[in-house]
Amino acid sequence: MVEQRAPHLVVFTGAGISAESGIQTFRASDGLWADHPVEEVATPEGWRRDPERVLRFYDQRRDQVRRARPNAAHKALASLEKQGFAVSIITQNIDDLHERAGSRRVLHLHGEILKARSTVDARMHYPLPRGGIRLGDLCDKGSQLRPDVVWFGEGVPHFADACETVARADLLLVVGTSLAVMPAAALLEHTPLDAPCVLVDPEASALAPPGTAGLEQPAGKGVPALVRHWKRERRLWLPEALLGEA
């Protein structure tokens, strides 16, 4: 007897899902990013010019992440995994809200703010359960620690792993991203031909590529609605009552 494989949902999340937990995006006109130009705090050049400023900025963001709580979308995805579905999450977000909600397979394309890493060996990571990073905090090789975040102009080290994960999807769910950030947006090109793709976003009809179904709802409403359907049917499908073809 051949054992039936669990349905494999691959979820690609962006800033929109975390925004509903109170974490502001760098595109927002207010909040932490408003007084900090991206090139000053999120580039290798900004780090070389003023590392202390960069560390202060990420300390602020870290505090914001620690205060935030997983929302209904994070929790719904974790609950689907507990129901026996195989759920792989690929996120552009640097927070740990998916993990705190209970998801076990999470790939962070752009790093994790609650970790530090060496400036001479990117393989050396250090958890930051509390506090932040200061000038003079060194890795085991004696080099200054920096935020474990992929800055603009840097490579995305886990992109190949993300492509392999998407290639094994039975359905690809995209949540809260404009699909404008490369190379992450190119992940959709690796979806199997027979795997449906759905975008959950308040502007889904304008953002969804051709052939992608759109659900024009915020993550905290749209994702739990889809998960309820999938749990009831024990399969991944696109309920026509919820979705409109983009």
Describe the protein's architecture and organization.
The structure is a single chain. By secondary structure, the chain is of the alpha/beta class. The protein has two domains: 1-23 and 70-110 and 157-245, TPP-binding domain (Rossmann fold, 3-Layer(aba) Sandwich); 24-67 and 114-149, 2-Layer Sandwich (SIR2/SIRT2 'Small Domain'), CATH 3.30.1600.10. The chain has helices spanning 15-19, 38-41, 44-49, 51-67, 72-82, 97-101, 159-166, 204-207, 219-233, and strands at residues 8-13, 86-91, 106-108, 111-118, 125-127, 145-149, 171-175, 197-200, 213-215, 244-245. The strands form two sheets. A seven-stranded mixed β-sheet has the order 3-2-1-7-8-9-10, with helices on both faces. It has a three-stranded antiparallel β-sheet with strand order 5-4-6, covered by helices on one side. Helix 8 links the parallel strand 8 (197-200) and strand 9. It is elongated and about 55 Å long. The protein starts with 7 loop residues before the first strand and ends with a strand. The model has no long low-confidence stretch (mean pLDDT 90). Keywords: Acyltransferase, Cytoplasm, NAD, Transferase. Substrate binds at residues 58, 61.
- Strand order in space, largest sheet: 3-2-1-7-8-9-10
CATH homologous superfamily designation of the largest domain: TPP-binding domain
Output the CATH class name of the largest domain: Alpha Beta
- CATH architectural grouping of the largest domain: 3-Layer(aba) Sandwich
The main sheet comes to:
7 strands, mixed
Shape, principal axes of CA atoms: elongated
Oligomeric state of this protein: single chain
User: Termini separation (Å)?
Assistant: 40 Å
- Give the strand tally: 10
Topology pattern, helix = H, strand = E: EHHHHHEHEEEEHEEHEHE
Q: Strand content of the residues, in percent?
A: 15-25%
Number of helices: 9
Low-confidence stretches: none
Mean pLDDT, nearest integer?
Answer: 90
Q: Structural class given helices, strands, pairing? A: alpha/beta
Radius of gyration: 19 Å
CATH topology name of the largest domain, in short, is Rossmann fold
| Domain count | 2
What share of residues is helical?
25-40%
